[in-house]
Recover the amino acids of this structure.
């Protein structure tokens, strides 16, 4: 049965689009929402309610719709929980009602209605405690929830844009259009945002569409106006920033997030109608009067033939007229005792309330009640339009802390316009025409009287909350879930708090409203994240010689943000085996390690030495040009922050090396201290990490290889911890003799773009590439510290064998004072040692047990690094152990996820303690 | 106290729900109380309850400037866990989790403590190692922990991205099965109701504005509802601690920052545990109602605004979608924030203050919901005896001078 | 999203900046008492209302500067150079 009127509506009757709803095919016209098309097609049932699974029909025409929720699409491209009223109809759409099985017509969970009396406000707080909540929680979870989440990664893309304007007008109804026009004529840059896909707002049914079109044309012709339709401004943030989401139809992006910084904002967001609260006011066929108005005029759909208009105010008069004109039989049931004359041809019952709606799957009749409480008979009807008054849409105003105050004349919370940055116009400011409301918050009598249709909150629930003293509006909301559904309480909040007020002898203004929270309307997570999720969330960094490593068979692994070779497996071996032979090779031949991510910061200026003295545990200023020294840096809390070798290039220039992970952090740290604490020191800090690639040649054969490079650097008498610069094959080059392997090493720096060429050259001279894993084996054999692995957020320099340098230095440096506190002087701190566990392998993270060996029981530390040493042919490990440096030789017990192991505490250095290999 | 049960629900259903008594008594302040608790959040209310129950002290009022539970207690993401690295933390938080386990029945109020487990993800070999340390430490601390391999994680949270291309590959993780979530408001209400039934006065809309301090400590407090005499004051005001400290002439090692939470529209069950990724700095669970509950790092500057900023929210959501790409089309329903009391080592500040008979319970920062029963228990002990409770002694204010921080952030690295 | 006036670059969006905590802290000498050191490291005014703080224009000019900001409303009163005196407000 079609309910489409023969003429009228802002729809394109020349074209037809088809779509499917709950498995059946329907058609509509461009300009329809899915809601209007279904209504035109005579569909009464669109869903089931959240808690009781009562049959529900369309209730509204806009974003306030509480009932008609669907999942649009399926599988990975499903969009759950869309309101039928927000879906702009397009060909081929497929939608399913949420939370009813198998369909809105037949839903087995409707048995919940039988238990209805038990399911009052807060019932779940009062039961399900025995024997255990777990037994009940599963079924409750399955029953809750609305639509099904998509099943795969999102195929759509989302864009972010920023914009600035002098005036942002939110809402494209008559008031918004007028405000935009006025600002534009004054030469202001204007953005006009409208959620709907056409401009006009309620003028599309209540006003004059032609005037709207005329203003729209005028605005579109001006260069200083940008009109964004299908764009919902959902959040108000600091300093005039508004966030909006635009639904895009251009095919490239599904949605676009706009961040708009506006000098001034005009809220022309209109008002929303409230339901009336009487028994079974949720039956299909009960609708907001404004929705009926919109369906008739904007969409050319007549939702019913025999209409009762239940109201407590005058705003339904025009609704009655358009219904009458469309051929319906209309009776106004008005709570007020002496309303104005009804429109011609419309019946009026004054001083009368609708007491109950009858009919299960479609309203059939209403019972009436006089204001005195006597029965006033019944009326047959097939549509019940209700108006319990209006509420200005001031969400965005309230989000930024704007206050709303209750105006008894309007029976509404109206913005207090005290802020120069945001102004409200039209219905959003509580300006609406002939109104004369006599609020009836709750019609007396028994039955389920819904206040919040989205969450199935009834007037009785509010009464329970009042009785139990959940009186504050926040308690009311939380205890009953009033206003917390997907419609965000658009139609329910004011009725709910007013009813609470009646139970507790308070006017609505004394009960107050809750502060609105963003977003105004639900926003897709993908839109908010935009291009910043997935691979771009934390961008991966690539070595300059990335391709070359792949050619060598490197297995890449992420370290910090860098993708680095873990090892170069050969002939089908696994990476662990490869790492073992790479480590052997470094001890017997020559290894090539790509150390490019190593942090490199030049610190220059007359005060460079003095400046660095304020950071290093050791001293920098005494270093001679061309020499290098190892240094630890602390944060102001005395915690080891980073380590590395620093070089003095000349009197006024130092090259600070940091760990790969510390490169950016340490540069920022030095900058901060310089700018904020010691601006008087004449230094400049220049990070050069990315400028230089570093190829490190290491091992007994390293010297031979370096000597064969075509370099003008004097390699004679080039000792460990020295630094020289010159060229290799004509390229600027810097070579540092420092070692993280314990073998004689040359860290060769060349401009980053020449990394592969140098690597290839070194390879042809006989070095073998080694990965991070081999490097870690080598440095652990030598007991070299790996900051962040062998240390954590509690480790101080005295814990890692740096007590000596600390004693030798007298001056202050960052973090020093913190070391002198009681805790820093404890003898039982965790200290870095080696562990010899014989043949047994210790996992990193195994805990050292206290001498009593109890589990659970106190811990005496933990293993921080652990490898099998191919050179020593046994497992080696480093650990932080309580007072460990004084316990060398002691046997300890370890615990690892149920297993117990034994080990002997040793020096951290397992290989070549004298360092002969370094100088070989 | 009126017993809540299935039977009372039935009885009330038959009498049209007319017989429900008030959950707690709304009262006006008396002229004097032995003990005043400032702050009607979880910690303040639990303290009042344990003062009455464990120590027989009932001449107590809880003064709340707004509505009870309206601070962080009613704004948090409800994660309850005791998977702490350091023994000091583990002992305290596990005591709290154990109290949670019996709370619904003890207080005769279903707080919906749901031990659906808390999974921490490992995305690299380094993460795996760090988590082995953590899991072992927990066992030594007497707290349950299990390491998970990739398949183990998949069985608990199949919606995560297990593909090869994932930005954060899932190598494994570890789980505390006794961890989970509870209904935040219910915790506040349940304690309020139980405390009220034992004689404690719960006074809402009563803001503490000043103190009168004598040689032995406080003699009275000034409030928006008049002057109230007292002999002892316990402060449990979270993000407002520095402001009340200022009234007492003290400074605290606290910064107040916004911490946000977000929920999506409800969907059918897709996530049956709490998932935390330190690398992405986010955590997610699904409420019984079906909403995904999302949290992450702090907003980046101090604020008393109780509102979250957008860049942080976007960053958190980007992290969630990096882990769970299929959540991209779900919609954000609400975003909000609480003002949390952040301490450098992310451990609480607990016990005596420099002023006699003024006691501090603050510094819970991003993680004090799980601590409510334990915090109330120990705070009641401190107020009743004037001494530290052994479980909270390590969290005294003097640790900042000694440098004896208990830096869990260095281990867990994330807010929740 | 704050709009922050960098004294070097003008108004820029918050996401270009890093907050650096209370401004005008005086770093005590090495021989200070444990209490002084703790005050400097940990104790903060943490006011509700006007706060003097340091900010870093990390993704901009790279400079640190001082900002006067209301922590309750997020209104910004002014910004000034890092080494300038604290203004009387
Ligand atoms: C978004 C978010 C997520 C979180 N997630 C978790 C989580 O998952 N797990 C977890 O364990 N913790 C979490 N937390 C932290 C946790 O919520 C808090 O640590 C905890 O609730 C603190 O409880 P409280 O009672 O100390 O403070 P609150 O609940 O904030 O109570 C303090 C009360 O003091 C009142 N008050 C303040 N000043 C005055 C005054 N002058 N006079 C009278 N009353 C006053 C306030 O109105 C408030 O009600 C989260 C916090 C937030 C904000
Ligand atoms: Zn700048």
């Amino acid at each position: 049965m079609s309910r489409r009127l023969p003429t009228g509506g802002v729809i394109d009757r020349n074209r037809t689009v088809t779509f499917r709803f709950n498995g059946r095919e329907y058609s509509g016209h461009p300009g329809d929402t899915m809601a209007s098309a279904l209504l035109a097609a005579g569909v009464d049932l669109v869903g089931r309610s959240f808690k009781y699974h009562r049959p529900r029909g369309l209730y509204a025409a806009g974003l306030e719709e509480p009932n008609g929720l669907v999942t649009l699409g399926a599988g990975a491209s499903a969009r759950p929980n869309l309101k039928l009223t927000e879906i702009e109809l397009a060909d081929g759409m497929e939608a399913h009602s949420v939370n009813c099985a198998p369909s809105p017509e037949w839903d087995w969970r409707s048995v919940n209605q039988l238990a209805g009396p038990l399911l009052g406000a807060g019932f779940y707080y009062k039961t399900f405690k025995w024997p255990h909540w777990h037994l009940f929680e599963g079924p409750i979870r399955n029953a809750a929830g609305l639509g099904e989440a998509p099943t795969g990664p999102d195929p759509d893309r989302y864009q972010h844009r920023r914009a600035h304007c002098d005036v942002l007008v939110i809402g494209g109804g008559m008031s918004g259009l007028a405000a935009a026009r006025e600002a534009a004529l004054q030469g202001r840059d204007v953005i006009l945002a409208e959620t709907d896909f056409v401009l006009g707002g309620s003028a599309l049914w209540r006003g004059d569409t032609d005037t709207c079109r005329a203003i729209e044309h005028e605005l579109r012709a001006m260069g200083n106006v940008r009109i964004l339709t299908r764009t919902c401004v959902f959040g108000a943030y600091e300093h005039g920033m508004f966030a909006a989401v635009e639904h895009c139809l251009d095919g490239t992006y599904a949605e676009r997030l706009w961040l708009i910084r506006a000098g001034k904002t005009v809220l022309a967001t209109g008002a929303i109608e409230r339901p009336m609260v009487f028994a079974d006011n949720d039956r299909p066929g009960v609708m907001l009067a404004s929705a009926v108005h919109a369906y008739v005029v904007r969409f050319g759909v007549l939702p019913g033939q025999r209409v009762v208009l239940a109201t407590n105010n005058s705003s339904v008069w025009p609704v009655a007229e358009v219904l009458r004109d469309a051929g319906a039989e209309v009776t106004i049931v008005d709570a007020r005792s002496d309303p104005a004359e009804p429109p011609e041809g419309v019946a009026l019952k004054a001083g009368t309330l609708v007491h109950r709606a009858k009919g299960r799957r479609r309203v059939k009749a209403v019972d009436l009640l006089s204001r005195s409480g006597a029965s006033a008979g019944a009326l047959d009807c097939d549509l019940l339009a209700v108006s319990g008054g209006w509420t200005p849409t001031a969400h965005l105003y309230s989000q930024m802390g704007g206050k709303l105050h209750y105006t008894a004349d309007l029976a509404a919370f109206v913005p207090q316009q005290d802020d120069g940055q945001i102004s409200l116009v039209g219905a959003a400011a509580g300006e609406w025409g002939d109104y004369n409301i006599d609020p009836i918050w709750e019609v007396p009598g028994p039955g389920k009287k819904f206040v919040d249709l989205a969450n199935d909150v009834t007037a009785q629930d509010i009464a329970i909350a009042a009785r139990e003293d959940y009186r504050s509006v926040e308690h009311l909301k939380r205890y009953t879930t009033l206003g917390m559904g997907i419609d965000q309480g658009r139609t329910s909040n004011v009725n709910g708090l007013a009813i609470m007020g009646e139970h507790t002898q308070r006017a609505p203004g004394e009960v107050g409203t809750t502060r609105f929270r963003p977003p105004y309307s639900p926003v897709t997570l993908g839109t908010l994240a935009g291009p910043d999720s997935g691979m771009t969330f934390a961008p991966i960094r690539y070595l300059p010689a990335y391709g070359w490593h792949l050619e060598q068979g490197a297995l890449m692994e992420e370290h910090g943000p860098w993708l680095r070779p873990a090892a170069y497996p050969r002939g089908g071996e696994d990476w662990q085996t490869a790492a073992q032979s790479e480590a052997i090779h470094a001890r017997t031949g020559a290894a090539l390690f790509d150390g490019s991510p190593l942090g490199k910061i030049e610190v220059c200026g007359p005060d460079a030495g003095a400046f660095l003295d304020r950071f290093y545990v050791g001293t920098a200023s005494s270093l001679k040009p061309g020499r290098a020294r190892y240094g630890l840096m602390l944060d102001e809390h005395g915690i080891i922050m980073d380590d590395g070798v620093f070089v003095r290039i000349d009197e006024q220039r130092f090259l600070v090396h940091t760990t790969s992970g510390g490169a950016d952090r340490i540069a920022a740290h030095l900058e901060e201290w310089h700018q904020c604490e010691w601006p008087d020191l004449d230094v400049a800090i220049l990070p050069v990490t990315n400028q230089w690639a570093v190829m490190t040649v290491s091992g007994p054969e390293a010297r031979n290889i370096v000597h064969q490079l075509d370099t003008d650097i004097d390699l004679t008498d080039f000792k460990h911890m020295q630094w020289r610069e010159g060229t290799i094959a004509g390229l600027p080059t810097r070579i540092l003799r420092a070692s993280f392997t314990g073998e004689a090493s040359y860290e060769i720096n060349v401009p980053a773009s020449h990394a592969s060429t140098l690597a290839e050259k070194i390879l042809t001279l006989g070095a073998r590439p080694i990965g991070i894993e081999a490097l870690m084996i080598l440095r652990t054999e030598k007991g070299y510290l790996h900051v962040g692995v062998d240390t954590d957020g509690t480790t101080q320099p005295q814990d890692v064998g740096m007590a000596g340098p600390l004693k030798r230095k007298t001056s202050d440096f960052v973090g020093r004072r913190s070391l002198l506190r009681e805790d820093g002087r404890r003898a039982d701190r965790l200290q870095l040692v080696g562990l010899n566990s014989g043949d047994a392998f210790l996992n990193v993270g195994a805990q050292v047990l206290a001498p009593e060996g109890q589990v659970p029981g106190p811990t005496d530390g933990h293993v921080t690094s652990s490898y099998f040493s191919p050179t020593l042919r046994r497992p080696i490990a480093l650990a932080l152990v309580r007072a460990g440096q004084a316990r060398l030789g002691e046997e300890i017990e370890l615990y690892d996820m149920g297993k117990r192991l034994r080990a002997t505490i040793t020096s951290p250095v397992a290989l070549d303690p004298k360092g002969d290999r370094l100088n070989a | 106290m009126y017993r809540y049960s299935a039977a009372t629900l039935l009885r009330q259903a038959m009498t049209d729900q007319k017989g429900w008594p008030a959950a707690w008594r709304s009262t006006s302040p008396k002229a004097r109380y032995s003990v005043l608790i400032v702050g009607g959040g979880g910690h303040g209310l639990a303290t009042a309850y344990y003062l009455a129950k464990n120590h027989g002290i009932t001449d107590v009022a809880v003064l709340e400037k707004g509505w009870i539970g309206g601070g962080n207690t009613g704004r948090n993401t409800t994660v309850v866990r005791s998977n702490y690295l350091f023994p000091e933390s583990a002992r305290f938080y596990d005591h709290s989790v154990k109290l949670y386990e019996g709370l619904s029945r003890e207080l005769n109020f279903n707080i919906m403590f749901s031990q659906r487990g808390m999974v921490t993800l490992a995305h690299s070999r380094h993460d795996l190692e760090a988590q082995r340390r953590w899991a072992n430490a927990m066992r030594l601390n007497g707290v349950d922990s299990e390491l998970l391999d990739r398949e183990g994680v998949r069985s608990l949270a199949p919606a995560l991205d297990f593909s090869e291309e994932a930005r954060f590959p899932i190598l494994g993780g570890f789980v505390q099965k006794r961890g989970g979530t509870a209904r935040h408001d219910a915790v506040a209400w349940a304690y309020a109701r139980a405390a009220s039934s034992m004689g404690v006065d719960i006074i809402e809309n009563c803001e503490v504005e000043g103190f009168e301090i004598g040689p032995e400590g406080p003699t009275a407090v000034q409030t928006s509802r008049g002057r109230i005499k007292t002999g002892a004051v316990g402060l449990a005001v979270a993000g407002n601690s520095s402001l009340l400290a200022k009234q007492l002439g003290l400074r605290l090692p606290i910064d107040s920052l916004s911490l946000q939470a977000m929920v999506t529209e409800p969907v059918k069950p897709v996530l049956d545990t709490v998932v935390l990724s330190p690398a992405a700095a986010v955590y997610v669970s699904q409420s019984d109602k079906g909403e995904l509950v999302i949290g992450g790092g702090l907003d980046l500057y101090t604020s008393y605004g109780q509102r979250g900023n957008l860049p942080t929210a976007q960053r958190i959501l980007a992290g969630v979608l990096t882990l769970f790409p299929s959540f991209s089309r779900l919609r954000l329903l609400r975003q909000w924030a609480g003002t949390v009391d952040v301490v450098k080592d992310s451990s609480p500040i607990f016990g005596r203050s420099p002023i006699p008979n003024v006691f501090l319970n603050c510094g819970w920062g991003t993680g004090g919901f799980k601590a409510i029963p334990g915090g109330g228990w120990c705070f009641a002990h401190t107020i009743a005896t004037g001494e530290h409770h052994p479980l909270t002694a390590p969290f005294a204010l003097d640790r900042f001078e000694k440098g004896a921080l208990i830096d869990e952030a260095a281990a867990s690295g994330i807010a929740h | 999203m704050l709009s922050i006036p960098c004294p070097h670059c003008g108004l820029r969006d918050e996401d270009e900046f890093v907050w650096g905590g209370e401004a005008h802290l005086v770093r005590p000498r090495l021989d200070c008492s444990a209490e002084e050191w703790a005050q400097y490291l940990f104790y903060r005014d943490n006011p509700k209302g006007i706060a003097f703080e340091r900010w870093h224009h990390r993704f901009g000019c790279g400079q640190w500067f001082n900002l006067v900001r209301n922590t309750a409303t997020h209104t910004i009163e002014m910004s000034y150079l890092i080494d300038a005196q604290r203004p009387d407000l």
Summary: The interface with chain C takes residues 162, 237-241, 259, 261, 401, 636-637, 668, 671-672, 675-677, 679, 812, 816-818, 821-822 of chain A (CB under 8 Å). The two ends of chain A are 97 Å apart (CA to CA). Chain A has 24 helices and 49 strands. The mean pLDDT of chain A is 96.
